[in-house]
Design goal:
The chain is mainly α and 317 residues long. It has 15 helices and six strands. The structure holds 2-acetamido-2-deoxy-beta-D-glucopyranose. InterPro entries: UstYa-like.
Length: 317
């Protein structure tokens, strides 16, 4: 009852806005009297309600500004993924022991199991983003490869992979070069005669990893400890980090990815957009005929797509 009456009074006040100026003349006098009598109450209610709303909005805004996604927006260039996946932060203590104890498969010597683990975590699922996202990223949609409409994602969609996964892919590439005899010697011969494109892939990966590590350096600190039998202090790299939920993020991307079969099965010679000029280095293959074959193969895909012997490691395919 009370609420209903107040609601009514509120309506009357609200409708005395200038654009409804004729209202008072059209209505009976008792209403006007009632309005005046209740004006103070009404204003109080409005004031009270707006305070509650303002308080709620302030709390909500404060929470938004402290949310992992909004903090990550400040330390990343525009990424459509930040609009689509909700990150969480958690304190994680790393295991950085010199002798891989406790055991981590990623630090182990090469084996089919180690390869499988790395291929898994270093995968680069191909995602689909909108044209506006391409523009917000600061790229030209005329050059970005559009998703063929036959793929079923609609119009004006573009392929994209997460840079973080590309960095992990690169770490895996550098790891493989660190175990050169296992990964490359049988198929590529000695490192000194590594085909130019493979060598380029190696230095490309070293470069992008350095870029990422200097762009967003870890600001954590490492302490030193005394060790039995050792005179000098010893670094304790088992540090605490504030981590993003990479596992869930990666799972989420994997669930959304464009099926590889679709990408592999598509004829990329049709419906092509604007092309960039061919890289100088790819115009004239140096060296003998053996490399020519590699060049031809590499030219048809991306530098990342080339087979390196042990399973696929491509960004694209
Ligand atoms: C470090 O090792 C402990 C013991 O095996 C394990 O519980 C923990 O998850 C490891 N931490 C990380 C970050 O892998």
């Amino acid at each position: 009852m009370k609420w209903g009456a107040r609601g009514q009074a509120y309506e009357k006040v609200a409708s005395t806005e200038p654009e409804e100026g004729g209202w008072e003349q059209r209505q009976a006098v008792p209403f006007v009297v009632r309005i005046r009598r209740n004006l103070a109450t009404c204003l109080n209610i409005i004031f009270f309600a707006s305070n509650i709303i303002l308080f709620g909005v302030t709390l909500w805004t404060a929470k938004q500004h402290k949310s992992p996604n909004s903090l990550l927006r400040q330390t990343n260039a525009f990424s459509p993924l930040l609009d689509r996946f909700e990150f969480t932060f958690q304190k994680v203590k790393n295991n950085a022991s010199l002798f891989n104890h406790p055991y981590s498969i990623y630090k182990d010597d090469p084996s089919p199991e180690v390869d499988a683990a790395w291929e898994d975590i270093a995968d680069t699922p191909v995602l689909v983003i909108d044209r506006e996202d391409v523009l917000k990223i600061g790229k030209d949609p005329e050059y970005a490869v559009a998703v063929p409409e036959e793929f079923g994602y609609g119009e004006n969609k573009y392929f994209a992979v997460n840079d973080g996964q590309h960095l992990i892919h690169c770490l895996n590439e550098v790891r493989k070069f660190a175990y050169y005899d296992y990964y490359y010697l049988p198929t590529q011969g000695p490192a000194s005669s590594l085909p130019a494109l493979h060598a380029a892939h190696r230095s490309h990966c070293i470069g992008v990893l350095l870029d990422a590590l200097t762009c967003q350096p870890s600001l954590n600190v490492v302490l030193f400890e005394y060790m039995e039998g050792q005179n000098d202090p010893w670094p304790d790299f088992d540090i605490w980090r504030q981590c993003q939920n990479h596992g869930q993020f990666f799972e989420w991307m994997n669930g959304l990815q464009v099926p590889r079969e679709k990408i592999k099965g598509w004829d990329w010679s049709k419906g092509r957009g604007k092309e960039r000029p061919m890289l100088e280095e790819l115009k004239k293959p140096k060296g003998g005929g053996a490399e020519e074959g590699t060049h031809q193969e590499d030219n048809s895909g991306s530098a990342h797509g080339q087979g390196h012997g042990h399973g696929h490691d491509g960004t694209w395919s």
